[in-house]
Design a protein that fits this description.
Layout: H1 3-21, H2 25-44, H3 55-64, H4 84-98, H5 106-126
Helix pairs in contact: 1-2, 1-5, 2-3, 2-4, 2-5, 3-4
């Protein structure tokens, strides 16, 4: 795992929590998304072909799970398949708030943070259980 990147993801998650507490829900969603994105990148390591992970690709690679079980198939259901739809939802909410300026609720922001927390939890558990 890329420790510096995961540490940055942790800071982004803390930022998302703070933004939620001061009713900055759209910004909380954006920080929660990028916290997940950077956390997944930390777990996966460098992208296979480009200089950065594309948003849909990082979710697909992350939920596949071969980053923690190297022998897992690169086709078929992923080991973290239950996270696929929540991560896709989180990505769409980030688009909604950052590009389309759609209104959001506190409940939506809280759900975004919960998804990011779950991603971090999976990464910590699958990377040996310790926080970098």
């Amino acid at each position: 795992m890329e420790t510096a990147r995961f540490n940055a993801a942790q800071v982004m998650l803390d930022d998302a929590r703070h933004l939620l507490s001061v009713d900055r829900w759209a910004s909380a969603i954006s920080r929660a998304y990028y916290s997940s994105y950077q956390g997944m990148w930390a777990a996966l390591g460098a992208p296979p072909q480009a200089n950065q992970w594309r948003h849909a690709a990082i979710v697909a690679h992350f939920v596949r799970g071969y980053w923690f079980v190297s022998t897992h198939s690169k086709t078929g259901p992923g080991l973290l398949e239950p996270l696929r739809r929540p991560l896709q939802w989180l990505y769409q909410k980030r688009i909604d708030v950052d590009y389309d300026i759609k209104p959001v609720t506190q409940t939506t922001a809280l759900r975004a943070i919960e998804i990011a927390e779950q991603v971090h939890k999976e990464i910590q558990q699958r990377s040996g259980g310790s926080t970098p």
